[in-house]
Amino acid sequence: MPGAPGGMPVIAPMPAARPARIPSPREGADDVVAGTTVDHLTETYRAHYRSLLGLAALLLDDTASCEDVVQEAFIRVHSARKRVRDPEKTLAYLRQTVVNLSRSALRRRILGLKLLSKPMPDMASAEEGAYDQLERDSLIKAMKGLQRRQREVLVLRYFADMTEAQVAETLGLSLGSVKAYGSRGIAALRVAMEAPA
């Protein structure tokens, strides 16, 4: 997978902004009646594209899949924009859709791995001897060992820099569940990181 020095995935630049199109009177009337407007959705997407891509990267660690997931999230929210009654929740809908599509992509990967007759051997990288690479590898390994909900809560809370309330809304959980999954996930990470290799 192409990446930046240090093995991190390269985040592609945000798509270029298209020139504003003047909506027809009929389109404008439909958009105002219910749901978020196309303009608001597009502005939210542009403003948060890199953070949505980063969120997908933490869940998938594959740049091409991350870009596909974020673009598919925009298309799906655009198609269902009339259901987004509160424009302030547009970003939450986009984040939730990115998380759901990432889950689906992971399920497809797992199924694909099960169907493979033989796993391909890992290629050794030049950075494997570096201390920071080893530390990152052990963190990724420890994260993969967590329960799915614990991993999702920790990624959203600490890597996507969301509040516990935002995590709860994005994952459709209660605030208490988010706190419980978070504390159990951190405890499990601590044990896994301190265990001898």
TrEMBL record:
Q: Pfam family example for this protein?
A: Sigma70_r2
Q: Which segments carry the region annotation Disordered?
A: 1-30
Annotated signal sequence is none
InterPro entries in UniProt? RNA_pol_sigma-70-like, RNA_pol_sigma-70_dom, RNA_pol_sigma-E_actinobac, RNA_pol_sigma70_r2, RNA_pol_sigma70_r4_t2, RNA_pol_sigma_r2, RNA_pol_sigma_r3/r4-like, WH-like_DNA-bd_sf
GO terms in the biological process aspect are:
DNA-templated transcription initiation
Q: Which residues form the RNA polymerase sigma-70 region domain?
A: 45-109
UniProt-listed Gene3D superfamilies: 1.10.1740.10, Winged helix-like DNA-binding domain superfamily/Winged helix DNA-binding domain
Instruction: Tell me one GO molecular function of this protein.
Output: sigma factor activity
Spell out the SUPFAM superfamilies in the cross-references: Sigma2 domain of RNA polymerase sigma factors (SSF88946), Sigma3 and sigma4 domains of RNA polymerase sigma factors (SSF88659)
Chain ranges of the RNA polymerase sigma factor 70 region 4 type domain: 137-189
Identify the keywords attached in UniProt to this record, alphabetized.
Answer: DNA-binding, Sigma factor, Transcription, Transcription regulation
Composition bias type Low complexity, residue spans = 8-26
Family annotation (PANTHER family): ECF RNA POLYMERASE SIGMA FACTOR SIGM, RNA POLYMERASE ECF-TYPE SIGMA FACTO
Provide the family line. Belongs to the sigma-70 factor family. ECF subfamily.
Descriptive protein name: SigE family RNA polymerase sigma factor
| Organism (species) | Streptomyces cupreus
